Each structure stands twice: as C-alpha cells, then as structure tokens.
Amino acid sequence: MGLRKDFLWGGAIAANQVEGAWNVDGKGLSVADVAMYKPKVDVKDYSKQVGVTSESIQEAIKTDDTTYYPKRRGIDFYHRYPEDMKLFGELGFKTLRISIAWTRIFPTGEETEPNQEGLDYYKDVFKEMHKNNIEPLVTLSHYEMPLNLAVKYNGWVDRHVIDMFRRFCDACFKEFKDDVKYWLTFNEIDSVTRHPFTSAGIIPDKSNNLLQDEYQAFHNQFVASALVTKDCHEIISGSQVGCMLTKLTDYPNSSDPRDVLASFNKNTMNYFPGDVQVFGEYPALVLNFLKKHHIKIAMEPNDLEILKNNTVDFVSFSYYMSMVSSYDENNLELTAGNTIVGGKNPHLETTDWGWTVDPVGLRISLLQLYDRYHKPLFIVENGMGAKDVLTVDKKVHDQYRIDYFKAHFREMIKAVDSGVDLMGYTSWAPIDLVSASTSQMSKRYGFIYVDEDDLGKGTLNRYKKDSFSWYQHVIATNGQDLG
Fold first, then answer.
1. CA 394: distance to chain centroid?
2. Are strands 448-450 and 462-464 parallel, antiparallel or unpaired?
3. Burial 7-26 (b: 16+ CB within 10 A, else e)
4. Which of 89, 112, 328, 437 has its CA 20 to 30 A from that of 161?
5. Where are the beta strands (DSSP E) in 265-321?
6. Does residue 19 lie in a domain region?
7. By its UniProt entry, which PANTHER family does this protein fall under (predicted)?
C-alpha cells in the first residue's frame, strides 16, 4: 500500500526552543524564559532539571541573562527564519510544525487586545512558509504560557485562564485564517503530572495539594481545548484541529501477571488525556482513580457537554522510546526517557541520553492508537538527541541518525500497510535547538547543525549534516526509497 500521495512529510519545532528574541517587539515573559541550563544536575534527573520555586522564578525575572536561561536566545530563528525556511524548502518539506508564542500576542495573558507586532511576525513567517510550498501545522500551547499567569493564578489551576487562552486562540484564528488549516491545541497535554510548571504553569510551592491541582489543570485544559476546537471550526472553514499526546509505550518486564498489570496501569493513565479529547468523556477507570485519591475536580454545569460536543478531528503524538514496568521496581534497571525515568528494556540499545531506541515500538504505538481511536493519526515528534561533531570542513557525519530514522520509517510504513490512517510525519527536530528538558544545545536532533554550544557561544551558522540529503531523498520518493 505505502503512504498516501498527499502524505505530509516535514519537521517540528517550538517557538520557545528556537526563536530567541525573548524581549523583542513587545514579547512578555513565558514559563520557558525562566527555565535554566543546569550543567551540574544529572541530565536524567528531570525533576531537578525542570523544577522551579517561587524564589527561583523571582530571581530569573530580575536578570537579563541568556547564558543560563538559553530559551531566551534559542537559535535566533526570530531573525533567521527566511534562511531556515529556505533550507526546509530544500529538504522538500510538505509541512512544518511550529508554535505561536502566547506572550508575543498577549504579553501577560491578561490583555484584551493582541500585540500587533507579534501578529505581524507570524504573518511573515507563514508567508515565508507558503513561499517555500510548506503547509503550516500550528501548536497553540507548546510549553510557553505567560509567566504572569503562572505567578498570579498558579497557571491552569485557575479556571479564569480558559477565557484568556480562548482570547489568544481566537486572535490567531482570525488573523491567520487564510494561512493555517491544521492546528493543535496543547502540546503533550498528558505531561501536566510529569512537569506541572512547564506544561501548566503550576508552581509547586503555591499548591497545598499538588496532585489535586494537576488534575484540575488537566480539566481546565480539556475544556479550553474543546472550546477553541469549536471556535476554530466556526472561524476557519475546512480547518482541522488535533490533540497532541506523548506516546509513552510501556511493556511488561516479564510474563508475570503482576508485571502485566503494572504495565496496563501505566498505559491506561497515558491514554487518559487522549480518551477525553477523542471520546469527549472521562474514562471510568480514571474516574475511579480520582475518587480513590480524593481528587475533586471543580466543573461548571455544561463542561461535560462541551467536551462531548467538541472532540478533535485527528490525533497527533510524539514517540521517542518505550519502557518496561514491573510490580517491583527493584527488578528494573532504570533509564531516562521523554521527561520520565522508567524501566530499561534489555533488548534495546540506548541513545547518548539513555533513551531506548525502539522502532518496532512506533509500529505498535500506531496500531494501538488507531485501534483505540479510529481517527487519522499524525506523528508530530520523533527523533534522537545525539552528540554531533562538526568537522574542520564543516561536515557532520551522522550515519547513526540515518539508521535511526530508516528503522522507524520502515515500521511506520508497515503500520500503514496494516490499515493505519496516517496523515503525516514531522521529525523532532529538523534543525538543532535548545532541549526542552535539559536546556542544552549539545543534545542535537537536527538534519541541520547550528553552530552554538550549551553556553550560547558560536556563530549560529547553519550546516547541512549527512542526514540532510538522505531525508531529502526519502521525502522526494514519499518513503518508497529509504536509501
């Protein structure tokens, strides 16, 4: 069968990891602007890497430092996007997933009128994308909510944030209705319980009951997602809105039924945010979990109706690795993953950052998601962080990256041949950028090398890696020739 003829090949980036220009043209502070590079903290210790306190936030607000707050500088995509877009066009991209920084449009989140300079910037970005025959895929919330809303309201714990987010989204829909057809609401919405500040603006020391607040934030984001899905459909004729999930595929460590049960429980909670956005209702097992943990979600009378009547058009997800679970964690060797630590599968190799490499897991994930949701799927993040070396002649010989993608594409195509309806694939990330979890530049994902180190030193010049021409050929043949 192979991939559909209009398969959307491309790449994915996020505003807070590439744009820089953190205080330019009226932009306000976001939660990403206080994320620190912590070279003395183990890169696998995610709780310390992304952890914040009220005190650390206030210290960040007082400084203009961009060395240890690297998401403030990114890779200067804000000024270099025409150059980068030309490279993406040369790769043959059919689509590029980007995010719109909320604080470029509403600097504090509480304004009633949008910042025109921010709107103009993204208008120009979309113009450049279309100039290179690239279809935008836009994420509305990608770990960059206004810092003011985190400090003042404890982020998505407060229901008032729904109206502010809806105002931001509506401004985007009205301004870009002729530019953007495909939209995503919340990036990896399930991540609220893994990194509550990054994902939902929750400052842990402001919470009396963190678990309660996390699930309240979940609910408020679900309602917001449903409402802006409704708004998008009404404002932009023919638009499609998707949810975005982290697919944390988990296997039992053994055939011991207790291990099977432990894995089932992990996967059930991972599916929960997708279930709400696709089916429009809370799963029975999750409702029981909330009851057992004495979590009482404050709902408005028509919330459940809003969820039921405004489900998503497609399901997008990130997939990087898989893990294993056991009823007794002493049985496991632990390793890092996508902002989690879990059981290491002894049958799989790992990346420089300890993430398991599991191409077959991508095929399994596609089959699981399609069997569960019966909605078109879109892989919007997949890739490997590696320690690339730029040679004297400005080359990067990254056969390991080619091998990684080749293996994953083979399994992706097998899943399609099994009947999965797959819209497209965007690699994370087509160009080197600041890592979401560890705020490093040395954790490189791209087909394009950016000359910048972890402390922000370098020319910022862009260089094509060996994988650039390989991915270009894969796109040109629509995956029929993996080289």
1. 30
2. antiparallel
3. bbbbbbbbbbbbbbbbeeee
4. 437
5. 314-318
6. yes
7. 6-PHOSPHO-BETA-GLUCOSIDASE ASCB-RELATED, GLYCOSYL HYDROLASE
How far apart are alpha carbons 258 and 267 in whole angstroms? 14
Give the integer Cα–Cα distance in Å for 307 and 404. Answer: 38
Q: What is the dihedral of CA 235, 78, 443, 196, to 10 degrees?
A: -50
- Would residue 483 count as lying in a domain? no
The pLDDT tens digits for 407-420 are: 999 999 999 999 99
Q: In this predicted structure, what is the pLDDT of residue 48?
A: 84
DSSP 396: -
User: What single letter denotes the amino acid at residue 152?
Assistant: K
Q: Is residue 431 part of a domain?
A: yes
**DSSP label at residue 338:** S
- What is the total count of domains within the chain? 1
3-state class (DSSP) for residue 472: helix
Tokens of 35: 């994320």
Q: Which residue has the tokens 């594409």?
A: 409
Rounded Cα–Cα distance for residues 417 and 394 (Å) = 40
Of 55, 381, 411, 452, catalytic:
381
Give 160-175 pLDDT, tens digit per residue: 999 999 999 999 999 9
Produce one character per residue of 180-206: b if its CB has 16 or more CB atoms within 10 Å, e if not: bbbbbbbbbbbbbbbbbbbbbbbbeeb
Known catalytic residue at 381: yes
- Round to whole Å and give the CA distance between 86 and 89: 5
44: domain range? 8-476
State pLDDT tens for residues 50-65. Answer: 889 999 999 999 999 9
**At 339, which CATH number?**
3.20.20.80
Residue found under tokens 């402390």: 455
CB 443 within 8 A of CB 39: no
In a domain, 1, yes or no: no
C-alpha triplet 143, 154, 175: angle, nearest 5° = 50
Spatial neighbors of 58 by CB under 8 A, at least 6 apart, are: none
Identity (one letter) of the amino acid at 50?
Answer: V
